[in-house]
Amino acid sequence: MPPRPSLAPPDLVKCVAVFSGEFIDRALHDTLRSHFADHPDVAVVLIVDRIGVHDLNAIAPYGVCAIVRTSELTGRPNLLTTVKATVAQGGYRLPAGLGTSVRNTVAGPPHMQRPFGQPGILLRPFELDMVILAAQGRGKSGAAQQLDRTPGYVRNARKNLFQRLGVNTMAACVSYAAREGLLWNDSADGEPS
Q: What is the mean pLDDT of residues 116-136?
């Protein structure tokens, strides 16, 4: 039997790289960004356990052409090969349900979402420590213990921070710090600073 002809001319077939992770975390994001900087012409297939519409925005600039959920590979052993071939021919793929979410988000009425916090406000070291601990899931008493302060001191410091940033919750403070790039350093381990 003769080989099946390619759908695209050989000069249009892309090289394909496969990356995987449990979810889109800082390490995977940085890996994709670095790979794209070194190999902008290589298409990427991403295998993840969990992904949402918000993650697509974060990884879109880095050559990701297909996303496969890990659970999809369990019952379909040839799925990855098929997806890689599709991407090599210039195609794209999103997991079931995620494409619908994207279409609904794009088709929905436009709305202005006010970003949390006032841009450009620098956080004091103690405030940044509180925000980092909140991002790690620590409450007032856990943060107080970690920072060697009383819970009342942390409560008042949070209240002052809310006032400075113009927000009402610690989650909004974490969102502000993430948007301003304050939660991560450039260390090799990718841990919060």
A: 76
pTM above threshold 0.70? no
* Residue found under tokens 């889109």: 24
| Residues 67-87: tens digit of each pLDDT | 888 888 888 888 889 888 888
Distance CA 157, CA 126 (A): 9
What domains lie within the chain, and their CATH numbers? 10-107 (3.40.50.2300), 113-193 (1.10.10.10)
* Predicted local distance difference test score (pLDDT) of residue 7: 43
Q: How far is CA 121 from CA 156, 163, 180, in A?
A: 19, 12, 9
Other beta carbons less than 10 A from residue 77's beta carbon: 8
Q: Which amino acid, one-letter code, is at 60?
A: A
Instruction: Look at residues 7, 28, 165, 26 and name the one whose alpha carbon lies nearest to residue 90.
Output: 7
